[in-house]
Automatic annotation (TrEMBL):
A GO CC annotation given for this chain: kinetochore
Species name: Callorhinus ursinus
Designated name of the protein: Centromere protein X
One of the Pfam families matching this protein, by short name: CENP-X
GO molecular function terms listed in the Swiss-Prot or TrEMBL record: DNA binding
Length: 79
């Protein structure tokens, strides 16, 4: 995540998208990259918040991957 903006870099988002395209000639426009970067940022922040809430519900001081695994199914359904 970038500095104070707190988002994903466009080149990273572009690379992630390119890895999943079946046609190597597929292009992604700048607006689509910004939108996808914003969606990824929202997804990651929401995953972190839900993981913290899960850890608090379990009376834990630290968030572990176990809490993320517990909230991930519902998070994916919500997105």
């Amino acid at each position: 995540m970038e500095g104070t903006g707190g988002g994903f870099r466009k080149d990273l988002v572009s690379k992630l998208l390119q890895l999943h395209f079946t046609n190597s000639k597929t292009k992604v426009g700048g607006d689509a990259l910004r939108l996808m970067a914003e969606l990824l940022t929202i997804f990651v922040v929401e995953a972190a918040v839900r993981s913290v809430r899960q850890a608090q519900a379990e009376d834990l001081a630290l968030v572990d991957v176990d809490q993320l695994e517990k909230v991930l199914p519902q998070l994916l359904l919500d997105f």
